[in-house]
C-alpha cells in the first residue's frame, strides 16, 4: 500500500473512531453525551431507547468503517454510508414535516462522511 493510500485510510478511520467513542459514551455516560447532540436525557423507556438506539447507531457505523479499512472488503463501507445518508434524510423530514430545527451542520457532516466512505469504497479496497 502506498503512503498516500495509507494516509487516506487513516483519514477514513478518524470518523470511525469518533463514532465508536460516541457509541461507547452512550453506554457509559449518556448524561454527558446527550447535550453534545442537542438532546435532553429521557427517563424510563425513553432512556432505554436513547442508550440502546444511539449506541447501536454509532457503534455499528464506527465498527463498520474500521472493519472496511482493516479488511479491505468493499461491502463493509455500505452499511455506514446508508446509516449516515438515512440520518441526513431523516433530519430533513423532521424539519420539513415535523417542525424540528433545521440542522445543516449535522446534515453536511453526515453527507460528507458518507461521500468519503463512497470514495474509500472505490479507492481503498484491494479485494471484494
Shape: globular
Low-confidence stretches: none
Q: Could you give the distance between the termini?
A: 16 Å
Helix-strand pattern, N to C? Answer: HHHHH
- SS-derived structural category: mainly alpha
Number of DSSP strand runs: 0
The averaged pLDDT comes out at 96
- Tally of helical segments: 5
Query: Proportion of β residues?
Result: under 5%
Estimate the helix proportion, in percent: over 70%
What Rg is obtained from the alpha carbons, in whole angstroms? 16 Å
Sheet of most strands: none
Number of domains: 1
Task: Describe the protein.
With 128 residues, this protein is mainly alpha-helical. The chain has one domain. 77% of the residues lie in helices and 0% in strands. It has 5 helices and no strands. The radius of gyration is 16 Å and the shape is globular.
Short characterization:
By secondary structure, the protein is mainly α.
Attribute tags:
0% strand, single chain, 5 helices, 128 residues, mainly alpha
Topology of this protein?
Blueprint: H1 3-28, H2 30-33, H3 44-71, H4 78-98, H5 104-123
Helix pairs in contact: 1-3, 1-5, 3-4, 4-5
Amino acid at each position: 500500500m502506498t503512503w498516500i493510500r495509507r494516509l487516506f485510510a487513516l483519514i477514513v478511520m478518524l470518523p470511525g473512531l469518533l463514532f465508536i467513542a460516541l457509541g461507547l459514551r452512550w453506554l457509559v455516560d449518556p448524561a454527558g453525551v446527550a447535550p453534545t447532540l442537542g438532546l435532553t436525557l429521557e427517563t424510563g423507556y425513553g432512556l432505554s431507547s436513547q442508550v440502546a438506539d444511539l449506541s447501536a447507531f454509532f457503534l455499528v457505523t464506527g465498527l463498520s468503517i474500521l472493519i472496511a479499512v482493516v479488511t479491505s472488503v468493499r461491502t463493509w463501507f455500505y452499511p455506514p454510508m446508508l446509516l449516515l445518508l438515512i440520518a441526513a434524510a431523516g433530519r430533513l423530514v423532521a424539519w420539513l414535516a415535523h417542525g424540528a430545527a433545521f440542522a445543516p451542520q449535522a446534515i453536511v457532516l453526515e453527507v460528507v462522511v458518507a461521500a468519503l466512505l463512497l470514495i474509500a469504497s472505490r479507492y481503498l479496497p484491494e479485494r471484494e
